[in-house]
């Protein structure tokens, strides 16, 4: 099961009250989705089954995100990192970045276990 842009925005705004527009937060979500798509998804077999064309303010908020629900906290912490960075709150940004990195690494490891990287061949004994 996957979460949607609207669910991520709603959850984030409830967890971390902020003054930033949905348009700005969608731009930040686009940054991390592009990174996930390019650095993880496209480097593994089956990438053609996942479409990502970027998000803008005009993107339907019911659009499903790439990362499954069990790792979706990474979006919250990416947005939190972005808000704290924009506010100049470096200590809080670093804390959020640490949490983000943990979820990102866990997602990457799980994806790597479930999908063969491109260019890797299995061995038979």
Would you mind describing this structure in some detail?
The protein has helices spanning 5-15, 22-39, 73-86, 90-114, and strands spanning 2-4, 64-68. By secondary structure, the protein is mainly α. It has a two-stranded antiparallel ribbon. The longest helix has 25 residues, at 90-114. The protein starts with a strand and ends in an 11-residue tail after the last helix. The relative contact order is 0.18.
Outline of the structure:
It is built from four helices and two strands. By secondary structure, the chain is mostly helical. It has a two-stranded antiparallel ribbon.
List keywords for this structure.
125 residues; globular; single chain; two-stranded antiparallel sheet; mainly alpha
Topology:
Elements: E1 2-4, H1 5-15, H2 22-39, E2 64-68, H3 73-86, H4 90-114
Antiparallel strand pairs: 1-2
- Main sheet attributes: strand count, strand direction, barrel closure: 2 strands, antiparallel
Strands of the biggest beta sheet: in what spatial order? 1-2
* Helix share bin: 40-55%
Number of continuous helical runs: 4
Task: Give the helices and strands as they follow along the chain.
Answer: EHHEHH
Round the Cα radius of gyration to an integer and report it: 16 Å
What characteristic shape results from the CA principal axes? Answer: globular
Number of strands: 2
* Percent in strands: 5-15%
Report the uncertain regions. none
